[in-house]
């Protein structure tokens, strides 16, 4: 392998889109393979964890980790990656902030398994068989990873050096990550620990509709779901009664969802100054909601339009629940 940079890629609780986005770097990927040798990428090649563990501490230059931490195997992979890699990258929303898998924190593992193995109409499981972490078999045992009670982002388990947000990261941010790796291969130092390859400003700052806001000051009498209306492509979503999380989400995505006339769902994660992006976005949207002549109504009636939001947690914490102040349901105590 000579003096080429050593690169490891691992996935955990993820859909695979982040791995595909790496391939979307197109010709730049060829430059990357010229400068770095992939020494571990189990989703793309026949690697086992033993291949990763065979490297000594710090012998791999860059590790790219995508996916949330849902099982004991994911946690073990994260710890091995951290030990073996000089620089560890949290790649994509799931690794960076918990992502959509993090909505599993609204339910206990038992209730999730109840749905999968018992309650769905298509399930044929009369013995109510459930996966076990260890099953004796022919004098030995079959083992499965433990299903942990809480979904976590990568930085909740190990220290992270660089974060590349997005679901998946868009091409410009992928290219940023590749350029960082190429720079390191050329002798440049790694970016400062904690670097996020995205804007520190909210998406609203770069939204193409920022100059078209009417600023009427009128309250929004009803909050719509995106499929319930065809949004005016020239007006701010918030003014139309569509929840858009651009006000609490980092920019740098290119506003691709907004360009497709869909409101931001928050996949780039919170701006650096936000304590809890979901709660703060909820407060902002509530401040815009109301009825005509609202001063004539008591508070609970003025906030009535907020009741039209069908899935509050899924709307305001779609990607960020594991990184929120209250990061899991309080109805189900963590299981041991």
Give a structural overview:
There is one protein chain. By secondary structure, the chain is α/β, with parallel strands linked by helices. The chain is globular, with a radius of gyration of 22 Å. The chain folds into 3 domains: 5-100 and 150-196, 3-Layer(aba) Sandwich (Rossmann fold), CATH 3.40.50; 109-148, no CATH class; 203-323, no CATH class. The chain starts with a strand and ends in a 20-residue tail after the last helix. The model has no long low-confidence stretch (mean pLDDT 89). Helix content is 27%, strand content 14%. The relative contact order is 0.13.
Please write out the topology:
Blueprint: E1 5-11, H1 17-23, H2 27-35, E2 36-40, H3 49-53, E3 60-66, E4 69-71, H4 72-84, E5 85-91, H5 93-97, H6 109-119, E6 134-137, E7 140-143, E8 147-152, E9 162-164, H7 171-185, E10 195-196, H8 256-259, H9 277-288, H10 299-302, H11 312-316
Main traits of this protein?
Rossmann fold; 6-stranded parallel sheet; alpha/beta; 10 strands; two-stranded antiparallel ribbon; 11 helices; 336 residues; globular
